[in-house]
Amino acid sequence: MGQQRVVKHGPAKSWTDELDFVFAVPSNDFPEECEFLFTRSRPGHWPKPETLEYARKCRMFFIPQGHPHTPLSERTLQWRLSTSLTERKLMFDFTDEQMLVYILLKMLKKEYIQPKFGNNFSTFHIKTAVMFSIQKHPPVIWRNLLYRHSHSVGTRKCLSSFHHGWSKPV
Question: What CA–CA distance (Å, rounded) separates 56 from 144?
């Protein structure tokens, strides 16, 4: 048998691009530093109170992953907090237009930003910026934003066909 390669995506390791395996220690308690997500004031339209309450009950995970600039010998001593299940629940609360804006930004990142700047700008940064923007701005702007700017990057037809095939989980 030939030697298999190890594929790495952040803290995930696998033998294929289709699956990610991450060692994680689950926790049901949010640390005090994360409580601001649930207690800070917000305009009121996003996230919905029931989504926020459900998100508060999601587990979080501690993952052994040090900062990339930390010496390799010290990285295993550093852990980061993953709130992936909470983020996933919040993303399912996006409207179709908000999800399409997020996907368009990911496409722009992959096509134009990543080749020039590498992995210094991640999907996490995009997701965080979109979530703060959704919370800060009224829902009506998203449709206008998507359709006004989709012409400039030539993706309207692509986004339109994608939109008809996309459905949120029940």
Answer: 31
Q: Is 109 exposed, middle or buried (0-12, 13-18, 19+ CB in 10 A)?
A: middle
Distance separating alpha carbons of residues 53 and 30, to the nearest angstrom? 13
Q: What is the spatial distance between Cα 82 and Cα 60, in angstroms, rounded to a whole number?
A: 6
pTM of the complete model: 0.72
Structure token digits, residue 11: 């803290």
Two tokens, residue 15: 């033998």
Show the tokens assigned to 113: 């930003």
Query: Other CB atoms closer than 10 Å to residue 19's CB: what's the count?
Result: 9
CB-CB contact of 106 with 18 (8 Å)? no
pLDDT score recorded for residue 2 = 54
